[in-house]
Amino acid sequence: MRRNSAQCQQHQLLTARARAMRGAPTSSEEALWRALRAQQLGVRFRRQVPLGRYIADFVAPSARLVVEVDGGCHSDRAQLDARRDRALARLGYRVLRLPAELVLRSPAVALSLVREALGA
Q1: Does the global pTM surpass 0.85?
Q2: If pLDDT is split at 50, 70 and 90, which confidence band does 114 have?
Q3: Which domains, ranges and CATH numbers included, belong to the chain?
């Protein structure tokens, strides 16, 4: 797929923003990243990955799975998150949303949900 100059510029901006986000993760993103890296889930995860017009928190490219860690600000963003999920689905990805509080309080449960989504 060839990109026009506006698409190239947008991709460069997303890539730079993703790089910055990798350097300053939230506590819940950092906790899940440590768990994903340590667990043997059979797939490789990448973090803060540009996909289309969005930056996904975690992606398992081989499984076409996106894992999003939703903090408190997502409670009033349901419509925007649904639009984002549909856009990612059009790119061939399934989306698993995990509440940040769950990741921090029950990392084993969060990993179990990721494992379950990988098996689907």
Answers
A1: no
A2: very high
A3: 5-119 (3.40.960.10)
